[in-house]
Amino acid sequence: AVLESALKNPQIPISQLNILSDRDRHQLLVEFNQTQKDYPTDKCVHQLFEEQAERNPDTIAVIFENQTITYRELNHRANQLAHHLQKQGVEPESIVGICAHRSLEIIVGMLGILKAGAAYLPIDPATPADRKALMLEDARVQVLLTQQRLAESLPKTHANIVFIDTDIPTTSVCYTPRASSDNLAYVIYTSGSTGTPKGVAIEHRQLLNYLYAIEERLNLPSGASFATVSTFAADLGNTAIFPALCSGGCLHIVSQERATDPEALAQYFRRHSIDCLKIVPSHLAALLTSIAESILPRIRLILGGEAASWELIEKVRQINPDCLIFNHYGPTEATVGVLTYQVYGEELKGISETVPLGRPIANTQIYLLDSHLQPVPVGVAGELHIGGSSLARGYLNRPELTAEKFIRHPFDAQARLYKTGDLARYLPDGNIEFIGRIDNQVKIRGFRIELGEIEAALG
Predict the structure, then answer these.
(1) CA dihedral angle for residue 235, residue 237, residue 242, residue 247, rounded to 10 degrees
(2) Chain centroid offset of residue 195 CA
(3) Which among 13, 386, 79, 343 has a CA at the least distance from the CA of 206?
């Protein structure tokens, strides 16, 4: 193919020589990306939740430790909060911060913010005060929802502080629906290579596409129970939160103390029937060093946030052979996850060093490209680029960085691609294997950390 291309076009630079046959190129650009699905796009995520609240008002929606809340109660409390926020001047495209410990209130807060038409910005209470202040200022947060017990740990801020556990009026009220699917749904901050974290802006339509696509892949019965063990300040847990609340399921929020204590977590899983769990592989591996059998979900285990090893798969298989295991990959900039691989057997163990990332979910395209944005052949490493309906709006208030990372699509002038910085290669069957990074970003227990941010702190 290279020789043919060179003979036909002797004037062009080497970088533009075609190394793929037309058939191979078609397979990489078109066949591997046949993911079109026609999902409804006229609703927002909180409206799907409201439909479940109408359909199953007395079903338990969320459990936190020994507290429970039904769909009717959760919807009612979220409506009260939405009404209160709208009275404070919150509207579409406003960003409302939520800094709270894992609790029922955090779900009330997220839904109330979405119902008010605004976007939520989750902030982990353990985040250092100066970083909290930076996020609040950078996102121009109007209102900050928090809990009374966190009052003293909050930084100085221009935002109006509302205590979600004491300030919300308990009268029966309605909010005015204002958000459309083009509006912001949430902003999540990730590590920045210059030392400043950057806010990824996700709209309702991107979250909706993810929700429909992941529900289809997981194929769980309606009313399934999901557990989330990760921080709300990252989007890892959205694989459990929204599919649970938008399908009439039950969401179990596991406290930080319990999520890091194998004994306590095993005890919880014995007491509650958990159908689906999303967890970072290294977190699961640490938990499985002791009381193994009780920590796994009954029917679906989703691994995400970092590369998964075959040894971990083997361990899970020995403990619960009936549990389907999914490996799930995606940066925050592409709405939670874009690739999934269902582990059937170990047929790819000899070919792929780690568990493959799999294939793209619905309405998502993946391109493995070289430095000249040309597709690389099967088996050759290239930078993973993401296109399609899951792409974030961009980085909040950072147009230059958005332009640098969300580039013009080389094969479709109307679209964009996100440059992930991840090196990957196609396996012969079309699944994708993760190889490493092209830069200095590292993953610690599923968290993205730019070493430049540590250098800036040390400097």
Answers:
(1) 160
(2) 23
(3) 386
Q: How far is CA 451 from CA 255, 278, 283, 401, 454, in A?
A: 29, 27, 22, 17, 5
Digit-by-digit pLDDT tens for the chain (459 residues) are: 899 999 999 999 988 888 999 999 999 999 999 999 999 988 999 999 999 999 999 999 999 999 999 999 999 999 999 999 999 999 999 999 999 999 999 999 999 999 999 999 999 999 999 999 999 999 999 999 999 999 999 999 999 999 998 888 877 778 888 999 999 999 999 988 777 899 999 999 999 999 999 999 999 998 999 999 999 999 999 999 999 999 999 999 999 999 989 889 999 999 999 999 999 999 999 998 766 567 899 999 999 999 999 999 999 998 999 999 999 999 999 999 999 999 987 777 778 889 999 999 999 999 999 999 999 999 999 999 999 999 999 999 999 999 999 999 999 999 999 999 999 999 998 999 999 999 888 888 778 888 988 888 899
- 375: DSSP letter: B
Measuring CA to CA, how many Å separate 295 from each of 220, 265, 283?
A: 19, 7, 11
Q: Please, what is the end-to-end C-alpha distance for the chain in angstroms?
A: 50
Separation of alpha carbons 359 and 339, rounded Å: 5
pTM beyond cutoff 0.90: yes
Q: Which of 57, 42, 186 is nearest to 114 (CA)?
A: 186
* Helix, strand, or coil (residue 137): helix
Q: Which of 61, 100, 261 is nearest to 269 (CA)?
A: 261
Record the tokens describing residue 110, joined without a space: 């997220």
Q: Quick one: which of 108, 36, 39, 119 has its CA closest to 74?
A: 108
Dihedrals phi, psi of 30, to nearest 5 degrees = -110, -60
Quote the tokens at residue 83. Answer: 């009404």
| Cα–Cα distance for residue pair 341/237, rounded to 1 Å | 18
